[in-house]
Amino acid sequence: MKKTNKIGLIDTHCHIFYDKYKNDINEVVARAKAEEVNKIICVGIDIETSKKSIKLSEKFESIFATVGFHPHEAKNVPSKYLDTIRSLLEVPKVVAVGEIGLDYYYEHTDKKQQIKVFREQLELAKDLNLPVVIHNRDSDNDLYDNIKNSKVNKGVIHCFSSDVNFANKLFELGLIISFTGIITFSKELQDVVKEIPLSKIMIETDSPYLTPVPFRGKRNEPYMVGEIAKKIAEIKNISFDEVVDVTTNNAKQLFKF
After folding, report:
1. From CA 154, how far away is CA 48, in angstroms rounded?
2. Which of 205, 121, 113, 109 is nearest to 158 (CA)?
3. What domains are there in the chain, each with its CATH number?
4. Gyration radius (Cα) of the chain, Å
5. How far apart are CA 245 and CA 240, in angstroms?
6. Can the peptide bond before residue 78 be classed as cis, meaning omega within 30 degrees of 0?
7. What are phi and psi of 99, to 5 degrees?
C-alpha cells in the first residue's frame, strides 16, 4: 500500500475483541501502525463486548471504543441496561453509542424489541450529545423514521449497503455513511460510492468480517482499511491522499478525538 505521509488512516469500525485476535492482538495493532492506521475504533455489540473494547482502548493508545447493544443482541438487554451503558460512556476513550440499529434480514430479535432498544439508545445518545454508530440491514424505512423522530443528528450508518437516494435522506438528517471491503467486489455499491460526496464518507474494515480484495479468504484486520481508501480513490478518480485526508477528518469531526 502506498504510504500517506500525512495524517494517516482511521479504521472507524472493527470488532477485534473476538477470540480470533486474542493470540496476536499486539501484532494486529503493530501491523495497523505500520500501514499508518493511526486510530482504530473497536465497536461493542453488548455490555460484555463493550467492556472488552474499553479494555483494549486502555491497553493501546491507538484504540478507542464504543458502547451499545446491536440489534441481534436486543432480546438480551437486562432491565437496567441503559444505566450500565450510561456509566460506560463516561470512560474517556469511549467515543460513541454503538453498535445500535435494526436488522430485518436475520431478525434474531423481533422487530418491536429491536425498535424499542434502538430508540432508547438513540435517546440516550441525544441526551448525552454523543454520536451514534448504526447498523442497518433491510430496515431502511423504520431506521430512518426512528432516527428522524429521535432528532439525533450526528452519527454514521456503518457498512452502508443501501442506495444513493437513502444516503441522501440520511445526509439531510445530519448523518454520514461508512464503507467496508464490500466496495472492492460489489459493482452495485461501487456505483453508490461514485455518487456520494467524499465529505460524507468514512472508511472501516468491520473486522473480522468483509475482508477486502486482495485479501479475500483471510481474516480481516484494521491494517486492510487502506484497501478501501484505494478503491474509493479509484472509483472517484482522485488521489489516495485526498481520500485519506477527507475520510480521516470526517472521523475526527464526528468522534471528537
Report:
1. 25
2. 205
3. 9-255 (3.20.20.140)
4. 17
5. 9
6. no
7. -95, 120
| Residue 255: all three cell numbers together | 468522534
Query: How remote is the C-alpha of 91 from its chain's centroid?
Result: 19
| Dihedral of alpha carbons 252, 247, 54, 146, sign | positive
Please, which pLDDT band fits residue 6 given cuts at 50, 70 and 90?
low
Q: What is the mean pLDDT of residues 103-121?
A: 95
Mind giving me the DSSP string for the chain? -----SS-EEEEEE-TTSGGGGGGHHHHHHHHHHTTEEEEEEE-SSHHHHHHHHHHHHH-TTEEEEE---GGGGGG--TTHHHHHHHHTTSTTEEEEEEEEEETTT-SS-HHHHHHHHHHHHHHHHHHT--EEEEEES-HHHHHHHHHHHT---EEE-S--S-HHHHHHHHHTT-EEEE-GGGGT-HHHHHHHHHS-GGGEEE---TTSSPPTTSTTSPP-GGGHHHHHHHHHHHHT--HHHHHHHHHHHHHHHH--
183-210 pLDDT per residue, tens: 999 999 999 999 999 999 999 999 999 9
Is the separation of the CB atoms in 99 and 70 below 8 Å?
yes
Distance CA 219, CA 112 (A): 34
- Count of other CB atoms within 10 angstroms of residue 119: 16
Amino acid at 248: T
pLDDT in tens, 141-173: 999 999 999 999 999 999 999 999 999 999 999
